[in-house]
Amino acid sequence: MTWKSRLPLIVESAIPLSLCGALTDHVKNHTARPRTYRGVIDESLRKSEYVEIPVHLQEAVISHCAAHIRSHFEIAPKCIPTQPAVVYRYGPGVGFVAHHDEVTDIERERARTNGQPVVGGDLTLVVCLNTPDSYGGGELFFENPAQEIKPSCGTLVAFPATRDHIHGVRPITRGERVTLVVRVDAECL
Ligand SMILES: O=C(O)CCC(=O)C(=O)O
Ligand SMILES: [Fe+2]
Predict the structure, then answer these.
(1) What is the ipTM of this complex?
(2) Cα gap 95→115, rounded to integer Å
(3) Which atom of ligand 1 is nearest to the CA of 168?
């Protein structure tokens, strides 16, 4: 079994609250922009805004997650410095439909003109930045095997960015859901 067929890794309190706070502060001081799905803004498929995160905060997050990732996936996470981590803010409405995180050619092509970052890489790290009681709905779901999670602030959820790992975000019914998404490459140990 290769590392890419492993189940998602879930680690509570992987990120210290102080780092969650630094990320949240960054977001508060920057204008959020609507996020695309397959290169197009379509709120019936994905309703979230994003803010790009500076590389030093991205590296801090990766260093807190590295040991967990090594032991679960048996690979080392490698920062992709040219590619910004993003914080997503989801308000009430459609969350994010079921999808996979493998970058497609159509997304790459549309990114040449839509001003949006292409978020590629081998492994997706999702870190929850607010508490689950601050929003209704918004569960992160996986399809195979079926799993629905609503993690606490500072929890890491990591999974391979392949077509097999179909996932999405249930519609937010109240409040705001805030997550950080960092993509890393995998280095063999
Ligand atoms: O916000 C989340 O929990 C997941 C986001 C996601 O699936 C993605 O950016 O590809
Ligand atoms: Fe995704």
Answers:
(1) 0.99
(2) 22
(3) 7
The token pair that represents 150 in the structure block: 């609503």
Distance CA 171, CA 47 (A): 9
Domain ranges of the chain: 3-188
Nearest-CA residue for ligand 1 atom 6 is: 168
- Name every protein residue with a CB atom under 6 angstroms from any ligand 1 atom: 88, 96, 101, 126, 140, 167, 169, 179, 181
Q: Is the pTM of this model over 0.95?
A: yes
CA of 167 to the centre of ligand 1 (A): 8
Residues 6+ apart with CB under 8 A from 116: 35, 36, 39, 110
pLDDT category of residue 51 using cuts at 50, 70 and 90: very high
> Which fold does the domain 3-188 belong to in CATH?
Jelly Rolls (2.60.120)
Average pLDDT score over residue span 94-118:
95
